Amino acid sequence: xxxxxxxxxxxxxxxxxxxxxxxxxxxxxxxxxxxxxxxxxxxxxxxxxxxxxxxxxxxxxxxxxxxxxxxxxxxxxxxxxxxxxxxxxxxxxxxxxxxxxxxxxxxxxxxxxxxxxxxxxxxxxxxxxxxxxxxxxxxxxxxxxxxxxxxxxxxxxxxxxxxxxxxxxxxxxxxxxxxxxxxxxxxxxxxxxxxxxxxxxxxxxxxxxxxxxxxxxx
Length: 218
Hints:
elongated; ten-stranded mixed sheet
């Protein structure tokens, strides 16, 4: 297994699990100014600055002094069709063909528009990239989010909070193991399948057709 963390410039994690992912990653790739948070964090935690593998983005928020100091790590991509998270993901997939798990940290917080946009992008990545068996999830102090593309069984643990989203209003998702079944939900807005809870250790979801969906767990 090869685990890589992409660190975005949102709310830096404080809780044990996301920090464990950061500390144990085989490589860390920072989005633009997120590298400054990473350097401060490693200085406090380890008594020295630990450099990431790369700093990827359009460099619109990284001060010139930092750009000069970290010039050998910077992967400057100026195009504006993709955000820095997508640029960093493309870098990771190209640089590490053996990656198995990608954990995105700092994708939320500070700005709601970035949070919503990054969560939406999670659903797009299986369509945009040939991910194969690569598992991608966004982890914060509050939740874990990941995309689905078809029917599946999720080993989430009984009692876990469970929210389900999809931009496809033609999609029907039958569920087993949730307190409120999603069988009749019409995905025509963000809220209809949120704030649910697992009543079994395993939640089974059956899609009417392959499509895009997002799960957020507490």
